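Record type: monomer structure entry
Structure origin: computed from sequence
Chain ID: A
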Amino acid sequence: MAKPKKRYVCQACGGVSHRWQGQCADCAEWNTLVEDAPATVFSLKHDLSSGGRAVEFVDLDKPGEMPVRQKTGLAEFDRALGGGLVPGSAILMGGDPGIGKSTLLLQAAAKVAREGHGVVYVSGEEAAGQVRMRAARLGLSDAPVKLAAATGVRDILTTLGTMEPPKFLVIDSIQTMHSDTIEGAPGTVSQVRGCAFELIRYAKENGVALVLVGHVTKDGNIAGPRVLEHMVDVVMSFEGERSHQYRILRALKNRFGAVDEIGVFAMAGEGLEEVENPSMLFLSGRDQQMAGSAVFPAMEGTRPVLVEIQALIVRLQSGATPRRAVVGWDNGRLAMLLAVLESRCGLNFSSAEVYLNVAGGYRLSDPAADLAVAAALVSALADKPLPDRSVWLGEISLSGEVRPVAHGGIRMREAAKLGFKAGFGPADEKTASSDLDYKGLGQLANLVDRVMATE
């Protein structure tokens, strides 16, 4: 009998190698290859065209009862989920350590349990006493949540099989779970994949809304095999800086709703509080307008969020290479925008250091922020503030044209509701709003002329 070959599996991407090496050939990560049990290879003589169970096919228009979403009682959590928990769905939630994942899920579990639904919270990282201490601090001790501290998937599923399936099941975290049918320590690729498969199968068969908490790597990606994100229905990211009080819950994948909705929370002494008006978090709140500051109405799903973009220009006296520092925006897009300003508008940024920041730690990926960034840069360069209580939006092309953006009218109406008086953007009738004084800009040069003429 031939000796089975050893294989090594990358803990970052799941790539397989037949010899150990310091760097994974697939994802280029270092020291991530771990020896794994050899895979069973079936003989090619086995014919899979017979001996199985017949699969039932149905028509797309077959009448049936649609699953009813279960509200968690946290409106921001439900918004990010697309309207609530779907029975039989599997949700993977990732986030930095200490960001508040366990606190959020404990609050949601308590609210669902208080509505009279069965809730099970399984902690693999903390003892039951530690979770009870957190619940007491949050004022949730009276919630009828079934709490357990366990890491064996067989023990968990055996226990769940002896009781009525709960409406809500939380596993914190999937990297601590262990299956005795799979070789390897908890957290390895095979263990994470196998444990998640068994838990998801239980949730699908019994109509249980399952939430799996996942660790993240230093890059912010969910640790473990990438196939884990394909196995679940919803992938959520809980973001924020621990030095700030607010947190953003964002859906990266959602089979039951939109992926661009966000939920905003603020960390307080009694836990996470919902933020109904997140725009106030990302605006400085000062009365006097300063040079290098522009307000941009961003869109997160169906919710407009106003954020402040800050720019600082520092002129260099020597021939040193100027720095380009960006926080909250794409560095490559800033370089492109600076090139357009120099080429199409005649401005000189080559001998100056450029610092760009999105206030409050907010992250922007919307191309509609181009005009707001350009306005902040020109304002900082000229050391002249932009018009008071004004918002800016529009995508800028390489030719210097200000192009239309999506949902311009909704953005402008939200700005008017928050007390802004003027709006600047593309010369598009759909973007213009009667709620504020809107001025269309056809070219980026029009912006430069308007800022330079501001007293």
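Annotation 1: The two ends are 88 Å apart (CA to CA).
Annotation 2: The first strand starts at residue 7 and ends at 10.
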